[in-house]
Structure formats: structure tokens, C-alpha cells
């Protein structure tokens, strides 16, 4: 069974042991739910992650799609003061800390995901926004010395909301909670209304037509994939390459100015794991992760 969490906080090297703060709980009602943005075949929708109370202290984590499909991935539970959030994997019964609000600026902890090596993270800021405590840090992931690729991901723990990258294996760097509901009440919504309005996509920005997507966007779907994935490329793209996690070049091609911005690649002959898609335009270059299941 695939693990729900892409990033897992496994070892905290320093934290404030004497904090007496009591925080608004992430698991605050018999049912909490989060909206997660999704893209497929030019269409946009929201999946829903539900935390459903199982016992007084534990919640079952369930992913629901608009097609009424549901999967149970594991259990969530909080510390007594609600400063820490834990996940228990259904397959291994391992428990992990996935959020810690007791961290201070300069504190260091270790993060690990399913594919890359553990890495030390330093908290760069602690602040309050809309009455909620935020723990802010950058996560720099280096995938391969051969491909010379590093990706910086902006991360945050938010009081009462959770880790901003979500609870499910979505495309890294773009997955986050758009909204959180406690029962029927809206507790949190993503503050930037350019992309999202009222816990849904801003139709004036996205629409369902590929041509309406921002000209400088690089979009990949489905991701993770079992075989074929599709790409919408930025304008002025000149070069595309796919690397394995070890830096081996799997595919590359040059683009002329009059070629289509859409591209598909069949990974049915590729091994399961993580791959890197690198795109170079006239002005910039960008790298994104692809997961082959």
C-alpha cells in the first residue's frame, strides 16, 4: 500500500520543551475535512481529505473524490496541548510526527520522504496570521549529483490547519490545503484568491480550456502515474528532458517555436520510482518531480 504522506517529520533535534501553549487543535470536531486541488485532462476539481473520529483520541484519514471513491490511509492523533500532530501508517503501524508548533526560529529538525534522503530543516520564521500560529521553513531537495537538480519548497505548519503540503501523494510543491472545515464551519481558506475562490478554483483564471491556462505554466497530470502522463508546457519552450532519480537521461527532445505546448510520455516500460522532468525555455528553466507507480 502506498504511504499517504510524501514528507514525514521523523526526528526533531531541537524544540522548546517548556512551552505551555495550548493551540487550536487540527482534529477539532468529530469530522474535519480539507480541500485539495486536482488537475486531469484539462479539467480542475477538488478532492476532499476527511478525518473521521474513531475513538476519543484517534481519527481515521479518508480521501474522497468527486466520484464518491474513498480510501482509508491511516490514523491521525494530536498531543495533549495540540502542538504536535501524528500519523500512523495503516500498513506498517509506524507513527510519525508530521507537525510541531513548539519549534522556534533557528530550531533544526529532520524531514524524510519516501524517495529522498533525510535532510535537516531550519525554521526561518514564526508568526501569527489571522490568529493562527505559523512555523515557516524552506525544504531544499537535491535529487541527483548527475542531473544537478535542487528544488526549494516553501513549507509551513499552521495552527489548527496542519502541514500545508497536505496528507496525500500529490505533485510536490503545488499541493496544499485550499480550505479546512470543522464540521460544517469553514476554519481556514487559502489567502490568495487569484487561483481559488470559495474553496474552489477561480473559473475566471483557470477555466477548462488548455489555452486559458497561464502561458508560463508547466502542468503535469496524472501525477503519480502508472503509464502515460501529460504535460502542458510554457510558451517559448526549447528543450525537455526526463531523468531518473539517479541522473540517467531517459528522454529528451528539442522544441521549435511552432510546436504544440501539449506533450505526452509513455512510462509503461519505466521502473517504479521518482523521475525528474526538466524544461528549458528562452527565459527560464524549471524542474518537476514525476512519480511512476
Portion in beta strands: over 45%
Quote the distance from N terminus to C terminus.
11 Å
Arithmetic mean of pLDDT: 76
Number of helices: 0
Question: Strand tally, please?
Answer: 23
SSE topology string: EEEEEEEEEEEEEEEEEEEEEEE
Largest sheet, in brief, is: 8 strands, antiparallel
Strand order of the largest sheet: 7-6-5-4-3-2-13-14
Helix content: under 10%
Low-confidence parts lasting 5 or more residues at pLDDT below 50? 1-20, 143-149, 168-174, 206-214
Shape: globular
Classify the secondary structure makeup into a structural class.
Answer: mainly beta
Radius of gyration from CA coordinates = 20 Å
Question: How would you characterize this protein structure?
Answer:
The protein is mostly beta strands and 293 residues long. The chain has no helices and 23 strands. The protein has strands at residues 7-12, 31-40, 43-53, 59-64, 70-78, 84-89, 95-100, 108-113, 119-129, 132-144, 149-158, 162-163, 179-182, 185-189, 196-197, 200-201, 219-221, 228-232, 237-244, 249-254, 262-266, 273-281, 285-292. The strands form 5 sheets. Strands 7-6-5-4-3-2-13-14 form an 8-stranded antiparallel beta sheet, with no helix packed on it.
How do the helices and strands line up, and which of them pair or pack?
Blueprint (H helix, E strand, L loop, with lengths): L6 E6 L18 E10 L2 E11 L5 E6 L5 E9 L5 E6 L5 E6 L7 E6 L5 E11 L2 E13 L4 E10 L3 E2 L15 E4 L2 E5 L6 E2 L2 E2 L17 E3 L6 E5 L4 E8 L4 E6 L7 E5 L6 E9 L3 E8 L1
Amino acid at each position: 500500500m502506498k504511504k499517504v504522506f510524501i514528507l514525514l517529520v521523523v526526528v526533531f533535534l531541537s524544540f522548546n520543551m517548556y512551552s505551555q501553549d495550548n493551540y487550536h487543535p487540527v482534529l477539532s470536531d468529530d469530522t474535519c475535512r480539507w480541500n485539495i486541488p486536482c488537475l486531469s485532462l484539462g479539467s480542475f476539481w477538488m478532492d476532499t481529505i476527511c478525518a473521521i473520529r474513531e475513538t476519543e483520541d484517534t481519527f481515521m484519514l479518508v480521501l474522497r473524490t468527486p466520484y464518491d471513491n474513498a480510501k482509508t490511509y491511516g490514523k491521525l492523533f494530536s498531543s495533549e496541548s495540540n502542538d504536535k500532530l501524528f500519523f500512523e501508517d495503516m500498513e506498517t503501524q509506524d507513527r510519525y510526527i508530521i507537525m510541531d508548533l513548539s519549534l522556534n526560529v533557528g530550531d533544526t529538525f529532520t524531514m524524510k520522504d519516501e524517495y529522498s534522503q533525510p535532510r535537516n530543516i531550519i525554521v526561518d520564521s514564526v508568526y501569527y496570521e489571522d490568529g493562527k500560529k505559523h512555523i515557516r521553513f524552506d525544504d531544499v531537495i537535491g535529487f541527483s549529483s548527475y542531473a544537478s537538480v535542487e528544488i526549494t519548497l516553501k513549507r509551513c505548519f499552521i495552527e489548527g490547519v496542519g502541514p500545508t503540503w497536505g496528507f496525500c501523494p500529490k505533485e510536490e510543491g503545488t499541493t496544499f490545503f485550499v480550505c479546512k472545515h470543522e464540521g460544517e464551519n469553514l476554519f481556514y481558506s487559502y489567502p490568495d484568491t487569484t487561483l481559488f475562490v470559495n474553496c474552489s478554483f477561480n473559473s475566471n483564471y483557470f477555466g477548462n480550456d488548455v489555452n486559458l491556462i497561464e502561458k508560463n505554466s508547466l502542468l503535469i497530470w496524472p501525477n503519480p502515474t502508472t503509464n502515460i502522463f501529460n504535460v502542458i508546457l510554457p510558451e517559448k519552450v526549447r528543450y525537455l528532458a526526463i531523468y531518473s532519480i539517479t541522473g540517467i537521461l531517459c528522454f529528451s527532445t528539442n522544441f521549435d517555436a511552432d510546436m504544440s505546448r501539449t506533450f505526452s510520455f509513455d512510462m509503461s516500460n519505466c521502473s517504479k520510482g521518482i523521475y525528474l522532468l526538466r524544461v528549458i525555455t528562452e527565459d527560464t528553466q524549471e524542474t518537476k518531480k514525476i512519480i511512476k507507480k
